Amino acid sequence: MTKPVQLSEIESFDHEVDVLVVGHGCAGAAAAIEARRAGASVILLERYSGSGGSSAQSGGELYLGGGTALQKACGFSDDDADNMFAYLSKALGPHADLEKIRLYCDGSVELFEWFRACGVEFVESLYDAPTWMPPTKDGLMWLGENAWPYNEIARPVPRGHRPAATGFGGHAVMAALSATCDSLGAETHTDTKALSLILDGDRVVGVTARKFGNDVSYRAKAVVLTTGGFVDNEQMLADHAPVLLGHGKVSDGGDDGSGIEMGMAIGAQTRRMGFVEAAYTALPAMVCRGMLVNGQGNRFINEDVYPGLFSHAALHQPGPCWVILDEAGFDDVPPADLWGVRPSYAAETLAELEADLGLPPGSLEATVAAYNRHATESGTDPLYHKDAKWIRPLEGPWAAVDPRISFGGGDAKGTGFSGFTLGGLATDLDGQVLSIGGGVVPGLYAAGRASSSMHGEGYISGTSLGDGTFFGRRAGVHAARAVQDAGA
Amino acid sequence: MTKPVQLSEIESFDHEVDVLVVGHGCAGAAAAIEARRAGASVILLERYSGSGGSSAQSGGELYLGGGTALQKACGFSDDDADNMFAYLSKALGPHADLEKIRLYCDGSVELFEWFRACGVEFVESLYDAPTWMPPTKDGLMWLGENAWPYNEIARPVPRGHRPAATGFGGHAVMAALSATCDSLGAETHTDTKALSLILDGDRVVGVTARKFGNDVSYRAKAVVLTTGGFVDNEQMLADHAPVLLGHGKVSDGGDDGSGIEMGMAIGAQTRRMGFVEAAYTALPAMVCRGMLVNGQGNRFINEDVYPGLFSHAALHQPGPCWVILDEAGFDDVPPADLWGVRPSYAAETLAELEADLGLPPGSLEATVAAYNRHATESGTDPLYHKDAKWIRPLEGPWAAVDPRISFGGGDAKGTGFSGFTLGGLATDLDGQVLSIGGGVVPGLYAAGRASSSMHGEGYISGTSLGDGTFFGRRAGVHAARAVQDAGA
Description:
Chains A, B: Residues 18-464 form the FAD-dependent oxidoreductase 2 FAD-binding domain. Two copies of one chain form a homodimer. By secondary structure, the first copy, chain A, is of the alpha/beta class. Helix content of chain A is 31%, strand content 21%. In chain A, helix 4 (81-91) runs antiparallel to helix 5. Chains A and B meet through helix 9, strand 13 and helix 15 of A and helix 9, strand 13 and helix 15 of B.
């Protein structure tokens, strides 16, 4: 298992196809659609009994911009690819892949139209408040573009594109993409788990798989690995991304890194295997009205930043972190944004609250005093640059919310974090997998979280469905053309 | 280059040997010594014109304990392997390799005697002050064992063992180990750069190399990769440890990751490729008398911790960081510990200093006020637990030192950080390289910074020469025995 099989070891193949796509999530569907449109025969392998993968269980946000029809319909006509690039290259950094982000931004308007042509519907209205996920069907939302320092780096324009679904919308995106695969004649073989790449010399010429306990082999002229990341593989996490050990997993349970390992086993390059996305169970609508402090009672970021970024910062703080609110702030949170979260502690004074939370005596007092001093004197936050609209002097009584308690309340206390991995196989701009020592692995492609794509150490919602489909499409096109060139 | 060569492609070999060691630093020397003692013929390949590698250019500290003769001679008779393990497993963490640390601690007294038997000399006295490197020949020093939280986790005992050299002592360690290699009949082939592993099926059976522009081939029954880390390989840094991009490099210039890539090219597992050591140009003797603050004017760690650990914390802070001292603190630093460092800024008030350093108004004032409040009330540091002996209320006039300026002064301003990589090939306890998909790569070993060893996200001086020799020795023994078993 995982180690490659030599072509000479295969007596006969059960299936033959031009382009074999391993994994039917968003990246796989996009690769299949474009390979089929380019004239190649296509089979998708899916380990579970239906298509969709982790993509279908996601929020469904698509990070798109540069002047999409939806942005314009919502009154934002001043975005362009350069402005989008300025934001995304910072927000996904440090160490983001600028070449991939550039290409992605240049193709973003077209990608939006591609989604619509595949049947994804968008409601032409903006949800204009801080949140992880709007409680409405609004098609557009802010994803941190209007928070410091990004509002000084690029013109602030919302780019969170959402399918017409309340709450989690990934299923709506995947229903449309999978239907498009079907209509184009890309076959999906479900309950089929790919195990190993088949090699003819250096070239990948197929995969072996298991279906209901039986071996099954596929001969292909090109193989596209879209098997997802490795958050469900404890050994790979320990080896490559131990920061996520013990935390919740954002996946459908099948992100076991199998595609990444199949590539590594034949000397494929990997990239940024330690980079992760992590979301923290703190409510944006709450923290922007108060503060987020670490286990030493210090603030560490502007609380109105994209919540994925305050989450990532919290992951690296001495914990546990706390949401601190005064009574007026708590009362100001719109009921629809409360998500069942209640104060874990309440106290008349900060000294009492420090004792309740186990914070060093005087630490929270000093933090609030500095915050209030600037709120009073200038109505600003010179330490972390939270927007002035959220700034006012805080005064007791006080409340603290423990983000280790899940949204919806209850008593169960976890770590508060859940995430997934961003590192994977190194690919070029057409999804070709790079080889250790130079060049590409002939016949092998990767996209989505099985590959390392645009992300540096930062993460913004919608960039996984975004880059998975964008670079999945490019891989599908390139693979189909390579097949035709070889056959010509 | 880098990609493996098949045995069938080699017409004839230039050299044949039982155990081929690639890289003559501390790990390679240790492997060669023990393989030779176990009866194997041994050749060491060294890319440069003489042995020593990055080990010879290092400080020469050896992290040893558990009751060494040197510890006892200096009056520390209460250490043992469990106590050493308690410290090291925390200080090298989070995510340290507990199994390797356990073995290392259990073998530490013996490893010290091994160094002495190889001819490394130690002066039986303690240097008892915070420093990166003592200005004396004292053989023992503290490496953070007496700082919070480690002083509560284990009985504080110094374990920094230093060869009898003033300043950098790595050359003294390597001179002894290389002489031992020579005396045992392990040949060193200098100016010989290994390029590729030679494979017979799955088994490693040699390497190809270049010497003065000519191809040269080595047939071996076992290959031990001790080629060092990859801090000198910009592409590998960008792919795997971008946090070090742009910073100084702690190496002899040859840590190009070639051994790691040779392994990856044949499907060897890697581990923790993103983990790094980073040292910051801030003087321990200075920061413990004042404070270390980040770009928001906040402290972030107890300043008397092992300097490698405050360095690592600083690397992840919003920068730039500053050393803040009052006049009394500056005057209290022993002249021998000043290392030519002078204040970058001086000011009568903290408000002036904030303006000079570009810190948010009031930020440093709030930090110092909290520090002084506890210094006055209780003489303690409840936020970060710096030892009480360093705590007193600070008062102006003030000085700030910019760690981006090198020790020794001058005007050149870099990043202040220099480091090396800790990730590499995944190995078992005998140095056998693990294969993607399970099992080991037959005939292949790795040790030193070419492998992932004991380290998690933390680093303590002396653990590289320490684990390089410890696991290098084990690899040499195992390789020699495997050769004998195969020949029997």
